[in-house]
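Quarterly update, task 2.4: flavin mononucleotide-bound model.
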Amino acid sequence: MERTIIDPLDFTTRIAHLWDKDWLLLGSGDVDAGRYNAMTVAWGSFGVMWGRPFAQVVVRPSRHTFGLMNAYDSFTLSAFSPQWKKALGLLGSKSGRDGDKIAESGLRVVRGVVAAAPTFPEAILSIECRKLYWQDMDPGHFLDPAIEGSYNGSDYHRIYFGEIMHLEGSADFRG
Ligand SMILES: Cc1cc2nc3c(=O)[nH]c(=O)nc-3n(C[C@H](O)[C@H](O)[C@H](O)COP(=O)(O)O)c2cc1C
């Protein structure tokens, strides 16, 4: 997929639609070290914090991705055209600790331009982040009791903010 570099401040898309309907692929770990993974995510955000453009993701401790997110200092987010939706379904239901689900998905892996974490030549949007901050979700702060229904008492997400260091998009994402 042909992509060009986009200034994160100029990045524009239907953001809630991208997360909720299209989904993103969260790449973690270090490709050169041979320790990396990818999992589908649908909850997160983009914005500005501490004067820097960020991507924010949430990862449950039960995910294989969780250990890699904690051990390495970069992560990536990738979006794909609809033909890859089945692959995203696979990467969001199988665990990287049980086998090479990325190979099974048909996606190829390339180290990021600035991030050690994996990026994917097939992606129409590729966002590379440097981890800036994390915090564990505190169920004592849920103001709507219905939120607890997403957890049932355990596996509360860890929240990660990453500064967007490099962003590439196909024509669809040029804004
Ligand atoms: C559409 C979709 C969205 C998901 N969003 C998240 C998410 O935001 N955070 C999370 O921890 N898991 C999320 N998951 C679940 C993980 O992708 C799934 O558990 C995956 O198999 C974990 O892979 P891993 O063990 O290789 O890290 C989502 C799954 C799907 C299908």
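Highlight for this quarter: The pocket of flavin mononucleotide is lined by residues 23, 37, 39-43, 58-60, 63-65, 89, 92-97 (CB under 6 Å).
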